[in-house]
């Protein structure tokens, strides 16, 4: 059997191993505290990191703390986060999220998620306005070291090209399917996620994957198909 014909689970483990060799192994350490991560993720939608950060700090400077942001007049908060795209849509999401957290928990903090079972935590987060499965799983893995598999566009594209997932699998379904194939330790899931992201940005890009330089090419369905059809334009 050729390597690209292996079962998906074996390929997933091989993918993880090959990317571990190709990219630096990382420690799982949260970069920002949980509320910062949650609200910044909302601000970051269609916005670059610099503008997202500017909006975040301007907002807190002008309104003091989360309670101040929660009660800020709509137009003033829109102005504070104006460096982001669609600030008028983001303001109600942020304020509603802050209100829900305050009402349910008595304070604006999501530190309680650390002690919540993982599925319950995913459900709780995805009920917040503007929080989808990707944001919820990123937060739970990065900040709380929970065993979840965040699937972004790079993880999904590479998984489908290599053949870990079928072409019809949605990002929503991919979270659970990949999780079943990979080691459950949060640090392994974290490295898999970050390595796939880097690989997708540098090698397996959307328009012109550099298959000839790719460490996954021996197990990749896409590469085998392209080679069989004799239309290998990979560089
Ligand atoms: S061989 Fe090509 S398509 Fe397959 S993962 Fe590598 S770059 Fe992507």
TrEMBL record:
Say yes or no: keyword Iron present: yes
- Any one Pfam family here would be HhH-GPD
Q: Give the protein family.
A: Belongs to the Nth/MutY family.
Is the keyword Nucleus in the record?
no
Query: Annotated Gene Ontology MF terms?
Result: endonuclease activity; hydrolase activity, acting on glycosyl bonds; iron-sulfur cluster binding; metal ion binding
Q: Which SMART domains match?
A: ENDO3c (SM00478)
Going by the UniProt record, its keywords in alphabetical order are: DNA damage, DNA repair, Endonuclease, Glycosidase, Hydrolase, Iron, Iron-sulfur, Metal-binding, Nuclease
Positions of the HhH-GPD domain = 43-202
Name by which UniProt lists this protein:
Endonuclease III
**Single GO biological process annotation from the record:** base-excision repair
Q: What is the lineage of its organism?
A: Bacteria, Pseudomonadati, Bacteroidota, Cytophagia, Cytophagales
- PROSITE patterns given for it? ENDONUCLEASE_III_1
Q: Which PANTHER family match?
A: HYPOTHETICAL BASE EXCISION DNA REPAIR PROTEIN (EUROFUNG), PTHR47203
The organism of origin for this protein: Pontibacter actiniarum
């Amino acid at each position: 059997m050729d390597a690209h014909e292996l079962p998906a689970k074996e390929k997933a483990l091989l993918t993880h191993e090959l990317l571990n060799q190709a990219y630096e192994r990382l420690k799982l350490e949260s970069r920002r505290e949980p509320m910062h991560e949650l609200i910044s993720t909302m601000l970051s939608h269609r916005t670059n990191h610099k503008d997202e950060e500017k909006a975040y700090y301007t907002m807190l400077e002008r309104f003091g703390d989360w309670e101040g942001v929660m009660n800020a007049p709509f137009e003033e908060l829109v102005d504070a986060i104006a460096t982001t795209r669609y600030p008028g849509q983001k303001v109600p999401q942020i304020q509603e999220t802050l209100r829900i957290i305050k009402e349910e928990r008595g304070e604006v903090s999501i530190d309680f998620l650390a002690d919540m079972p993982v599925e319950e935590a995913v459900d709780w987060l995805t009920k917040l306005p503007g929080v989808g499965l990707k944001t919820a799983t990123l937060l739970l893995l990065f900040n709380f070291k929970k065993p979840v598999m965040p699937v972004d566009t790079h993880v999904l594209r590479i998984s489908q090209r290599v053949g870990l997932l079928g072409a019809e699998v949605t990002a929503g379904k991919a979270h659970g399917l990949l999780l079943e194939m990979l080691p459950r330790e949060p640090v392994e899931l974290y490295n898999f996620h970050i390595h796939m992201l880097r690989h997708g940005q540098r090698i397996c890009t959307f328009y012109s994957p550099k298959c000839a330089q790719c460490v996954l090419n021996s197990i990749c369905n896409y590469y085998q198909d392209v080679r069989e059809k004799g239309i290998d334009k990979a560089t």
